[in-house]
Amino acid sequence: MADLKSCWYPSRARVTTAAVVIAVIEVIAAIVLILLNVANKIPDDRKTDTYIYSGAQIILSIVLIFAVYMGRPTYISLYLQGQLLCAILPFIVLVIIGSEFYCVQAFMKKHHWFDPTLKAEEQETTGYVIWSVYTSLIAVYALFKVVALVVVQRCWAALGGVSRYCGLC
Question: Which key words are in the record (predicted)?
Fold first, then answer.
């Protein structure tokens, strides 16, 4: 059985590995978002927002990697603050896309998936499948963001970050 202290304060190697894995996943997600934007599968009124969000994700991920390798809790704190702001967006997008469930035709047109050659029933079925995939991916990403924030906060505490919330952190 592992002792309690090792659970609260993981080794430096585990901290570094966890932070780098999180940063790489965030960079991959940002690149996928950029590719969706280039492929014209993001609504036209949100193209600039997605580029800014993706750029922020990549920059914050680089900050996290350097902060962990240099052992700087201050930079990890900067990462946590930036990611806390970025973690709100997937939940907002989830609410917006969730509200489009009853108007799947508008969703299809907005995301450039509408195919006028299909029958109405086929178009609606395709729309619900695409809507379900979008919603599922965004929900998984939002959950990942929350878990990543918790893990990086643990990394921050393990590297000597000062927490004022509880005596265990």
Answer: Membrane, Transmembrane, Transmembrane helix
